[in-house]
Design goal:
With about 160 residues, the chain is mainly alpha-helical. It has six helices and six strands. The chain has a two-stranded antiparallel sheet with strand order 1-2. Strands 3-4 form a two-stranded antiparallel ribbon. Strands 5-6 form a two-stranded antiparallel sheet. β3 and β4 form a beta hairpin.
């Protein structure tokens, strides 16, 4: 009861028990705050896609029961190894012992690469995994940005569409 506790010229309106802070009173009725707009929903969907991509990239590319790092530096190292493997296959350079000893996985397990073909296979698998994640994410983001309404955004299933590592 606000009687005697507030300025007497304030108009007090009784409200239903389910009204909570943030509701508004207009035209004689209480209304819940409007939900997020379409742009907010789009931004949230794009953020969810980005978060899923970050998690997949952090998990690495599956290869031979291990996981190959997909961060920028590791992809550059894979590219250098693949270039060396191509040169070794062409007999332009020998296949270095450092690569033959193996690639160290995220799981800290050595994956032997006794031949240049083994190095190319590893680089190709990791590269394909990375490209699949990035291209699928781009398609999902494009779909989110083009979604005409909330229902279309809800239909974009980030977890099911992006490949699992």
């Amino acid at each position: 009861d606000p009687e005697g506790r507030f300025a007497p010229d304030l108009d007090w309106i009784a409200c239903p028990g389910d009204v909570v802070q943030g509701w508004r009173f207009a035209d004689g009725a209480f209304a819940a705050p409007a939900g997020p707009g379409l742009e907010d929903l789009r931004a949230a969907k794009v953020a969810a896609i980005s978060a899923r991509v970050a998690a997949l990239l952090a998990a690495g590319a599956p290869y031979g029961g291990q996981h190959i790092a997909l961060d920028a530096a590791s992809r550059a190292d894979l590219g250098a190894m693949a270039t060396t493997a191509l040169a070794a296959q062409a007999a332009s350079v020998p296949w270095p012992e450092s690569y033959a000893l193996g690639w160290i996985s995220i799981d800290n397990i050595r994956i032997p690469l006794p031949t240049p073909a083994d190095g190319l296979a590893l680089a190709a698998e990791a590269g394909d995994c990375y490209a699949c994640i990035v291209q699928t994410a781009r398609n999902l983001k494009d779909a989110a940005l083009a979604a005409p309404d909330a229902a279309a955004l809800d239909a974009i299933d980030v977890e099911a569409t992006l490949p699992a590592a």
